[in-house]
Specification:
About 5% of the residues have low confidence. This protein starts with 6 loop residues before the first strand and ends with a helix. The chain has two domains: about 200 residues, Rossmann fold; about 90 residues, Hypothetical Protein Yjia, Chain: A,domain 2 (2-Layer Sandwich). By secondary structure, the chain is an alpha/beta fold. About 30% of the residues lie in helices and about 25% in strands.
Length: about 325
């Protein structure tokens, strides 16, 4: 397969809560005629993001058995191989977990012989949460995600001052001077600015990490960052849910990197979809529950030094 025939791949990365799924939805809406295979990898044994992705012509494939940059790299190669056996795919979009180092994912497309013949990286887009990134730069993963990007999408820019913006811009230039920087709110960006640009340059990536093409990327997550998933078929009480989340946002927000889910509320015929990052929280009514659909609440919390027992007690408190 020639380079003209290879399937373009967009790798979408960024720390927890930066806005990757929102961007993914926006991109898919802008590509209604394309057959897009979406590969979603989440941190922990959960599939919340598949509920949050719009339904168009794309095929959604989940990898929940681990981090895409660690033990499931073989799964990724297997999925890509299976895609080649299906009807024509126009594009692959990979949304990595917020805890992923993108280097091994990039490495897969460069070093696995069959994958390299069939696929070509179009761009590596890193979402940067302009509001919260300073709190996370001490973590290993955000620095890696920024370093390997060819496009840095600075999201939530409306939540910071102009001085903050200039300071952040200089920090990003220091970390990755080669990447294009785009500023946005609600991940609202034209797809043509990101897709089909062939902005991935191996030479620039090798300047950031000369050993990228060596088989040595062993990624170790911060052991203090954990994820907990709670599921419950019994309905929740709306007032209790509001009280619990108000408490979490006020008193636990600093340690909650990301929390999201779908709620089955007794008082509502529609599911409630919510997402939160630290002290920023938003919930909206989603689709109406189908008559034959199992109604279930599913919540994931990802953060540092989280207390499982306390979260479980709070979730049980919300039962109607």
């Amino acid at each position: 397969m020639s380079k003209e025939q290879t399937i373009p791949v967009t790798i979408l990365t960024g720390f927890l809560g930066a806005g990757k799924t929102t961007l993914l939805n926006n991109l898919l809406k802008d590509m209604p005629e394309q057959k897009v295979a979406v590969i979603i990898n989440e941190f922990g044994d959960t599939s919340i993001d598949s509920h949050l992705v719009v339904s168009t012509k794309e095929e959604i494939i989940e990898i929940n058995s681990g981090c895409i940059c660690c033990n499931v790299r073989g799964d990724l190669i297997h999925i890509l191989s299976n895609l080649m056996e299906q009807e024509k795919i126009d594009r692959v979009v990979i949304e990595t977990t917020g805890m992923a180092n993108p280097a091994p994912v990039i490495q897969t497309f460069l070093m696995d012989e069959q994958t390299a013949k069939s696929f070509e990286i179009d761009s590596v887009i890193t979402m940067v949460d302009a509001k919260h990134i300073w709190q996370h730069l001490k973590e290993e993963e955000p620095g890696q995600q920024i370093a390997f990007a060819d496009v840095l999408l600075l999201n939530k820019i409306d939540l910071i001052t102009e001085d903050d913006k200039q300071e952040l811009e200089q920090q990003l230039i220091n970390m990755n001077p080669h990447a294009k920087r785009i500023y946005t709110t609600y991940a609202d960006v034209e797809s043509q600015d990101l897709i089909g640009k062939k902005s991935f340059e191996l030479g620039n990536v090798l300047k950031m990490d000369p050993s990228l093409l060596a088989e040595r990327h062993h990624h170790h997550h911060n052991d203090q960052v954990t994820s907990f998933v709670f599921r419950e078929e019994r309905p929740l009480d709306l007032e209790k849910v509001n009280k619990w989340f108000a408490y979490l946002v006020q008193f636990k927000g600093e340690h909650l990197y990301r929390y999201k889910g779908v709620l089955h509320i007794k008082q509502l015929d529609k599911r409630v979809v919510f997402q939160g990052v630290h002290m920023l929280f938003a919930g909206t009514e989603g689709f109406k529950w189908a008559n034959n659909e199992k109604r279930q609440s599913e919540i994931v919390f990802i953060g540092k030094n989280l207390d499982y027992q306390e979260l479980e007690r709070g979730f049980q408190y919300c039962l109607a």
